[in-house]
């Protein structure tokens, strides 16, 4: 048994840590034993646990948990990138969210993480041409989590969405790696055009609560968008923008805004 745990820790350290934390949580709070066993400890891999958790959260009278689990299992088996991205997302939440103290928490309790994983399966379905199922995932994700991400949007690894209420990401939006955003962020269009019409967010960007980024514009790598801003024009890399409409107010203030999560506007920063 000890050898098996050692091998797991080497091969999949994120999943090994989640398993250890799950057992500790059961020991500390036996009333949650059933949920934690079904969500984590009964599963041999993180892929199976993700399938189970997504299915439990999105199941409804219109589509059963069993069918959703089969769809998710198929997606994870077909595209290993989905679970690799999920691992990066867990680490991102743990490192950036001061309310997150264990790897276990995003998987069990954080709707931002759960919504992103549901989106990743929906995106896989969309790319397979199974668009009605993809839209079903989008609908249920919006209904359950208050997060509306079009399944054709492209989102990278290491994403942290804090609180995650009222997030909207449009069909042609692109979000790079290691992006952090807070609640009520919109990556939207500006009209009824049907072509490429949504923002392109670079790597390492921090988007504050309530910010709206509208139109087919690029937000450069490692930039900051202040809370409540409305961004209608391109944002250069490593800059801070604020206001309605947003204007450049200084440098980003650090090399990795999405990791530092520093949202304070300082003179010259």
Automatic annotation (TrEMBL):
Cited Pfam families: Hexapep, SATase_N
Gene Ontology CC: cytoplasm
EC number annotated for this UniProt entry: 2.3.1.30
Coiled-coil annotated residue ranges, if any: none
Protein family: Belongs to the transferase hexapeptide repeat family.
NCBIfam families in alphabetical order: cysE, EPS_EpsC
Protein's recorded name: Serine acetyltransferase
Organism expressing this protein natively: Roseivivax lentus
């Amino acid at each position: 048994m000890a050898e098996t745990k050692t091998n797991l820790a080497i091969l999949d350290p994120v999943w090994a840590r989640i398993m250890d934390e799950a057992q500790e949580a059961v020991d500390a709070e036996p009333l949650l034993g059933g949920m934690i066993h079904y969500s984590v400890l009964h599963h041999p891999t993180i892929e199976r646990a993700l399938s189970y958790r997504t299915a439990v959260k999105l199941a409804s009278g219109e589509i059963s948990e069993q069918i959703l689990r089969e769809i998710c299992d198929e997606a994870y088996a077909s595209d290993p990138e989905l679970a690799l991205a999920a691992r990066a997302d867990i680490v991102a939440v743990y490192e950036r969210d001061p309310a997150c103290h264990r790897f276990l928490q995003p998987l069990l309790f954080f709707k931002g993480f759960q919504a992103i994983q549901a989106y990743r399966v929906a995106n896989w379905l969309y790319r397979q041409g199974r668009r009605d199922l993809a839209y079903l995932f989008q609908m249920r994700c919006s209904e359950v989590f208050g997060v509306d991400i079009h399944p054709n949007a492209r989102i990278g690894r290491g994403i942290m969405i804090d609180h995650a209420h009222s997030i909207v990401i449009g069909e042609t939006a692109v979000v790079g790696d290691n992006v952090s955003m807070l609640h009520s962020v919109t990556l939207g269009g500006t009209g009824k055009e049907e072509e490429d019409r949504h923002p392109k967010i670079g790597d390492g960007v921090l988007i504050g609560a309530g910010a709206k980024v509208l139109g087919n514009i690029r937000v450069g790598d490692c930039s900051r968008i202040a809370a409540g801003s409305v961004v209608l024009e391109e944002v250069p890399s490593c800059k801070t923008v604020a206001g309605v409409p947003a204007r450049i107010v200084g440098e980003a203030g650090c090399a990795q805004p999405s990791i530092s999560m520093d949202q304070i506007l300082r003179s010259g920063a």
